[in-house]
Design goal:
binds pyridoxal-5'-phosphate; Rossmann fold; binds ligand LJ64HWYM; six-stranded mixed beta sheet; alpha/beta; pyridoxal phosphate; about 45% helix; about 450 residues; threonine synthase activity; lyase; globular; five-stranded parallel beta sheet
Length: about 450
Amino acid sequence: MRYISTRGEAPALDFEQAMLTGLARDGGLYVPETVPAMSDIASLDGLPYEEVAFRVIRPFTGDSFSEDELRGAITRAYGRISHVARAPLVQLAPGHHLLELFHGPTLAFKDFAMQLIAQLFQIALKRSGQRITIVGATSGDTGSAAIEAFKGLDNVDVFILFPHGRVSEVQRRQMTTPDAANVHALALTGHFDDCQARLKDLFNDHAFRDQVGLAGVNSINWARIVAQVVYYFTAAASLGAPHREVDFTVPTGNFGDIFAGSIARAMGLPIRRLIVATNQNDILHRALSTGEYRVGTVEPSISPSMDIQVSSNFERALFWAYGGDAGAIRQLMDELKTGGFSISQGALETLRDQYASGCVTEDETLQMIRTIRDETGQVLCPHSAVGVAVARRHLEPGVPMVTLATAHPAKFPDAVEQAVGLRPELPPHMAQLFDLPERVSRVENDVAALRSLILERRTA
Ligand SMILES: Cc1ncc(COP(=O)(O)O)c(C=O)c1O
Ligand SMILES: N[C@@H](CCOP(=O)(O)O)C(=O)O
């Protein structure tokens, strides 16, 4: 299995190399040259999550990891998810199901990929003796998941850039309270898109990149995406796939989670519609509705992890929609530097065949948390509520709808309290979170300052 860059000017790599490389050296994102077909989907229903993960991920890893290495990594990773089903599916209403992805150690769907890739990084780094510096950009959840997965591990430093004042207090404390020497939480003056842009600046500085052994764990990293494909299979198989089509609605920001759904579909999972759900930062909904991808200002919302305008994985979707034309993607990404681009009519039609979309206001999000609590007793996090609100506009008789519940409500107690007047409790393993001292550095939105800080703090 080989991976190629969406911009066509970086070398093709195998799985392990693509994982360790993160962003391609031409600034593009790695995608598989071909997507393997999944055989015997019916047999997945009822299997342990770990077994489904092995069957789904194995075709993507090629010779990079032995069967034993991959099974071991999967077992260790998902042993940290507290629910026996790992990703349980609960019914919200007839025909509408919630896929709970928040039973991991940091209470967000990011744990599914981050726990696994930390294991795979460890195997690869032990083998090569290499030391790396992970830098991640986060609007809250990727950072906490990465720190939890990589803290204290050998051969790795983890620097996480988060937008100062724009993550929830629980998210911030998850990043600032771990006391491992290899963890560095950095509060950047700006919003998430600034964090992601500075991260890409670091990757595009090849001398720095090579000097520190830069690695990325955002969903620009293909290994993140592949781990997120698995729960589409477990959910759909339990609802009757491959003999029955299923719709999925995905609360979306950086387009990684929903792109994983596209991979599941390309592998043969009968997903009828993949529905993009956004908050008021609705660039993806606007792009799919109008064909114009135009970056606006980021408006802080009660679903802060989706406060994104420059959605990195949309590049992967565009690459497919343009039939793998890397030159066209280079041109669009150049235009993006000056504010946006128009999607060609043919590519737009392909995208619309692949994705439906909707956006939700702040009031609608609060109302949906109330409605679902009243109807079912379940308390949703605001991101999941955005998903459920959009999904309810797209329900159709006869086709089950699955909405991805991407975080635990206790990560966003202020929004939940505003909606339903209660503050959800943190699980016991996080009971000390508000008592621990915080360790964080303020950084300006400036790549030179960031470079110096990383060089100074690295434990290598
Ligand atoms: C809780 C939550 N929901 C949804 C999303 C959006 O996921 P993606 O960026 O993969 O579209 C994020 C952030 O990525 C998140 O943290
Ligand atoms: N919402 C994310 C933003 C980064 O997303 P990623 O999936 O590309 O890592 C977050 O919580 O940090």
